[in-house]
Amino acid sequence: MSDRTIYIEPLTPDAFAPFGQVIQTSGAHHYPINTGKTERFHDLAKVELGGVHARPLISIFRGQPYALPLSLPLVERHPLGSQAFYPIGEAHWLVIVAEDQSGTPINIRAFLPGPSQGVNIAMNTWHGVLTTLDKETDFLVVDRGGDGNNLEEFPLDPPFLVTHRERGA
Ligand SMILES: NC(=O)N[C@@H](O)C(=O)O
Ligand code: NI
């Protein structure tokens, strides 16, 4: 396929490290609280809040499903803060991110989170918008509010195509 095809790959903390953190209990520092009735999986991701009057926002994004193969017409980034997504309930979704080269996204990658995985996309990191598959899905989102413009978009013309690699390919 063309060099504008992005093949979906599994989400792992190491693979995602250049773009932020994977939010998961596996491998996390954890300890009992509340007289042992609760286990705290502690400090899973780095919330970044930049700019003037920055404050953390907690929202719920209700995503409508996209079909695969996916046409990707743009990526965006938030220069003033990180953005975390954690699915509420079972989810089938993609996390699309890219490196930056002098203001241009390069090496776009599409990750498939496993069950009980979320992500925290680091401040100023190129990413696709919330991309849920199969069904309408809610996500808890932690990102940045405050003064200033916190959204930069980059059109991909022509769009990229996001798909699974053919079995055996
Ligand atoms: N625009 C907005 O709040 N959502 C996007 O940033 C996104 O990453 O989905
Ligand atoms: Ni975003």
TrEMBL record:
Q: Which reaction does it catalyse?
A: (S)-ureidoglycolate = urea + glyoxylate
SUPFAM superfamilies documented for this protein: RmlC-like cupins (SSF51182)
Superkingdom field: Bacteria
This enzyme's EC code(s): 4.3.2.3
Q: Ribonucleoprotein: present as a keyword of the record?
A: no
Cofactor(s) recorded for this entry are: Ni(2+)
Q: Name one GO molecular function term.
A: ureidoglycolate lyase activity
Q: Pfam families given for it?
A: Ureidogly_lyase
What keywords appear on the UniProt entry? Hydrolase, Lyase, Purine metabolism
| CDD domains membership | cupin_UAH (cd20298)
Q: Name one GO biological process term.
A: purine nucleobase catabolic process
Pathway assignment reads: Nitrogen metabolism; (S)-allantoin degradation
**Lyase in keyword set:** yes
Q: What class of enzyme is it?
A: lyase
What's the stated role of this polypeptide? Catalyzes the catabolism of the allantoin degradation intermediate (S)-ureidoglycolate, generating urea and glyoxylate. Involved in the utilization of allantoin as nitrogen source.
Regarding protein family, the annotation reads: Belongs to the ureidoglycolate lyase family.
- Quaternary structure? Homodimer.
Family matches, as HAMAP family: Ureidogly_lyase
Q: What is this protein called?
A: Ureidoglycolate lyase
